[in-house]
Write a structure and sequence with these properties.
Oligomer: single chain
Radius of gyration: 28 Å
Distance between the termini: 63 Å
CATH architecture of the largest domain: Orthogonal Bundle
Strand order of the largest sheet: 1-2
CATH superfamily of the largest domain: MetI-like
Shape: globular
Order of helices and strands: HHEHHHHHHHHHEHHHHHHHHHHH
CATH class of the largest domain: Mainly Alpha
Number of helices: 22
Number of domains: 2
Structural class: mainly alpha
Amino acid sequence: MTQTPSKQNSMNKRPRLKLNRLAFRRDSESAHRPQTWRWFLLLLPVVALVLLPLISIIFMSFSPSENIWPHLISTILPRSIRDTFLLMSGVGILSLLIGTSTAWLVTMYEFKGKRFFDWALLLPLAMPTYMIAYCSVDLLEYSGPVQTSLRHVFGWQDSRDYWFPNIATLPGAILVMSLVLYPYVYLAARASFMQQSVKVLEVARTLGRSPFGAFISVGLPLARPHLIAGLVLALMECLNDYGAVAYFGVETLTASVYSTWLERSNLGGAAQIATLMLLIVVTLLYVEQKARSRQKYYSPTGHGHRLPVTNLTGWAGALAIFICAVPFFLGFVLPFLILLNASFRFIDFLWTDIFWRAAGFSLMLAALTSVIAVSVALLLSYGKRVTSHPWLKPVNWLAGTGYAIPGAILAIGILIPLATFDNMVDSLMRSTFGISTGLLLSGSVIGLLFAYLVRFLAISLGTIEAGFHKVSPNLDGAARTLGQNGVGAFTTVLLPIMRAPIAAAALLVFVDTMKELPATLLLRPFNFDSLATLVFEFASREEFEEAGLAGLTIVAFGLVPLLLLNRTVSSGRQDKVND
């Protein structure tokens, strides 16, 4: 049977089309590969800089000038490990209870003041842990207003006439830090409760479960990955804290790093203690990653319906108000009023050079860190967007792990390579020109900016990557068809669209830099104070009230991103009815 010419032509064309597609694919891949490798080689030094402090600490801990592991194990570490474990356990349990219960109340119930508590419960996050510690001691100490009022009312003469709990203890540190760190759990829990399937909750209710029973049997298990993620953040901040634990006399691992380095002048021993802290951080990150890997709950039919809200009135409504009001009042209102009162009492401090120098130094550091962190995050995120190299995803993940590293560890890890570089340059200049260069980078603004970049890059990276995910990749292709190269497409098309995520990332980095205390204490230039170190030094001299204005300034800067964050989370609410 003979074939017609049309059929013969069609059969002859099919292999050619297939070969043409393969040839085009090979050409496009070969053209794309150099660009991919260029991006990879460009981003690799950024990740190397982020990992440099960790590598330095590990190297220093295993090869110190003198091996003091036996001394640390027999003297310092037992108490430090015990206090760290007790502090983190207490803060974790209390933060989990406060954050989860308040998040469930404001999400699943209707009571007076619910709309207010919905965002007000986030405000303690603007209060640094060291700030609320100073305020609590100032309020509850022997000469504070509480004990003074009690002596006046009951006619007591001195402390022998009555008993009053000492807040500057380990239980006091657990309570104070939980009041500041519970919003991490609250934020994660509230986001999870808002996104849970309405149908699942309705089924639980129709099967006879009470609202509390539905919470225990359905809501809580579904929210477990989110709760663990928020809890891990709270615990890492607890491990990073130095100002509060030092003021309360709690000998945590972080406090031991400072005392070993600054008081005993043993950098190798401090690096060895920091290695133990790194193990704790890695363990927390592993737990959080495992929780994320199990976060596979889908609700294809639950959208567009209102959450089953229960009205609370009478004693039940009053109890809900009390549960939400106590952490908000103790964690934000009370310390804020103490700072406000101290600011008015020492308003003359506003006109001193000390305040303005500290404020200027803090603003300069925060602004520079924001610009650098956002620029690096844009570079990493855009490189990941336009290329498909398999190593770029782990490279970006490694670049964002710095947020989990406590400031004390970062300070040691940064000081070691900077001091090594300074000594090498000084030795070279001495041997070649007979000139001593001294310390060029150690104890300079460059070291501080380096520490801030490593620690807060994750914040800007996450915010900007989330912004890129909302921008269609077709816009990149459209810009290229109009003759734009990669840089042109980024500057003319993507950058204007990304203004909001960039501004949010810069603002978050700015505020966190203003509050950072541990790394600033160890790496700041000589005779330079930020607002955070100024508050710490006044509190160390029992003159905290004189630094009330500086503390109030830090808190005021911290309120803005919290309100923006609450607006972002609330926009994901599923209880809106679709028309």
